[in-house]
Amino acid sequence: MKPIARGGVKEEAEKHMGLLKLAQILSVLVVFVAGIILGLVTSSHINDYFRSQAQLFITNNINDVTYMPSNNSKEPPKNDNCSSPLSQCEDCLSIESFLLPKNLTHALRDDELFWRASLVPYKVEYPYSRVPKVAFMFLTRGPLPMLRLWERFFDDQDEKLFTVYVHALPGYELDVSSDSPFHGRQIPSQTVEWGTVTLADAERRLLANALLDFSNERFVLLSESCIPVYNFPTVYKYLTSSVHSFVESYDEPTRYGRGRYSRKMLPDIQLYQWRKGSQWFEIHRTLAVYVISDTKYYDLFKKYCKPACYPDEHYLPTFINMFHGSLNANRSVTWVDWSMGGPHPALYGEANITEGFIQSIRNNGTLCAYNEEQTSVCHLFARKFAPSALRPLLNLSSTVMEF
Q: Any stretches that span the bilayer, and where are they (predicted)?
């Protein structure tokens, strides 16, 4: 047998190596092609599945819609504040639904409401033609005895200039006609007890609900016994033209002022910062946002300002004095008579209502600061009026109050 040449063995080995590499390359190609085919098939099935599911969703929702399109191509009924299924709801991201909630009813907790109301756009310019509005916020236990007077006050006024909000006791429904400016204006409320922090809670709740309307610029707190002593154009111009808010805040050195201060508020609130003032305020939007955004100082009042300390008389005057005094005129635009003494102001009934009495509230000969000038118009509203005062007030509204 002839021996195999060394060169032949080497060639044979190289040949086998070449075939092995070729086999490896072919194997990779087969796996790659198989992967592509499998991916295409899978993708096709997935697309068919989701397409069928989407078609099923659309079909089911179309079947659920109860309206019938007319030849005029009218839009389907819209649900306020996007509280219903997507197919029956207006665009939840529309500028209209964001700037002006159409329905005051909501299920927000107070902390959720305050957070939502505290949102402030960083961009100065508005993407719409903004007309400043005055928010009239009524804090009431139930009926509004002066309702007819207020309806006359708002009568024939441009609805783009004002809004109305009512905080009544839970379960109470205000009985008004559908064309009344008070119709549908009750906000979700909670129980309020006089002299407790729940009264201040209700004030902040009114502010927060009113702040949801981005066109509201001025916010005035009123009670069921309040009346306007000037007509709407005068009130609107007075408030929207003012560079200050109107919150009474003063240092009362007696037991009815400083005597209500608690040292447990130290070091956050010092005695020299403690203030007292009327509950009935009027504030600018900027200040309203500051008020409902505060948690730290309000919690101190909730913990330590308890009868005979009354948060509604001390929280706002103290908070504004501490941080926002330059924004405040330091007086109220609501006239109240405390000359009788006691825990409540004087109550005026039918026998007290005369032309001279109302004129004395409108202009009693004293002056007050307004935009760095002096004016004789110091009070736009007045309280406290009994239900029996309504008839004579209506008789005087056109001649004295000019509405």
A: 20-41
